[in-house]
Amino acid sequence: MAFRLEEVVPWGRSFEEYQAMFALSDKDLSGRILGCADGPASFNAGLTKRGGKIASADPLYRFSREEIRNRIDQVFENVLGETRKNAHEFVWETIPSVEVLGRTRREAMDDFLDDYPEGLDAERYIDASLPELPFREKEFDLALCSHYLFLYSPHLSHDFHLRSIRELCRVAREVRIFPLLELGAVPSRHLDEIYKKLQEQEYTVSIIPVEYEFQRGGNRMMKVRNDATV
């Protein structure tokens, strides 16, 4: 049995995990960043505390803090249960157990919830979703998409992926997507064809190893640029 979820669920990762997943340098963090499909991750809160410039886009942000907290509570044990049943799909090093995973994710999501009201007022959290975003061309230096594209390949079509990546390239000078696996710790069914299509459409595409691996084999990100539109 492989790890399964019937829908996209709110599940947040930390600032430090974003740094590792996307190989973010100090120079990267000094630019204007878009986090797309961030959900209840604490990256926005963490970067803001460090003086960074960031906006996060997710349809989750149409809801109140309490509504988001309640939704996290509804899915939390199910996600941990699926992880426990499929423990062989994960690398238990930095995070040594399901129990530590639960505490780590709760801490990140609590940091998000603490920051959320202020972030809404500052328009750092924006109710928006792929494949169409309400931003100007090249409004951002870097767009990050964590645990949405490719991960939810059973739920999101090939066409959705292609349109979404092209839209991210419209609003940002560079796009990074992590991981390149889908649920079940297998390579995304869309990855090879998306890579080929983007190259055919004259995007610069590369697959980069990163120093982060929780899903077994999930230690690569996709980097995409469309310099012709810069």
Q: Helices, strands, pairings?
A:
Blueprint: H1 15-21, H2 26-30, E1 32-36, H3 43-49, E2 53-57, H4 65-85, H5 98-121, E3 125-126, E4 140-146, H6 158-171, E5 172-178, E6 181-182, E7 186-187, H7 191-200, E8 204-209, E9 220-225
Parallel strand pairs: 1-2, 1-4, 2-3, 4-5
Antiparallel strand pairs: 5-9, 6-7, 8-9
Helix pairs in contact: 1-3, 3-5, 4-5, 6-7
Characterization of the model:
This protein has 230 residues and is α/β, with parallel strands linked by helices. It has a single domain (15-229), classed as 3-Layer(aba) Sandwich (Rossmann fold). Helix content is 38%, strand content 18%. The chain contains seven helices and nine strands. It has helices spanning 15-21, 26-30, 43-49, 65-85, 98-121, 158-171, 191-200; strands at residues 32-36, 53-57, 125-126, 140-146, 172-178, 181-182, 186-187, 204-209, 220-225. The strands form two sheets. Strands 3-2-1-4-5-9-8 form a seven-stranded mixed beta sheet, sandwiched between helices. Strands 6-7 form a two-stranded antiparallel ribbon. A hairpin with a 3-residue loop joins strand 6 and strand 7. Helix 6 (158-171) crosses helix 7 (191-200). It is globular, with a radius of gyration of 17 Å. This is SAM-dependent methyltransferase. It comes from Leptospirillum ferrodiazotrophum.
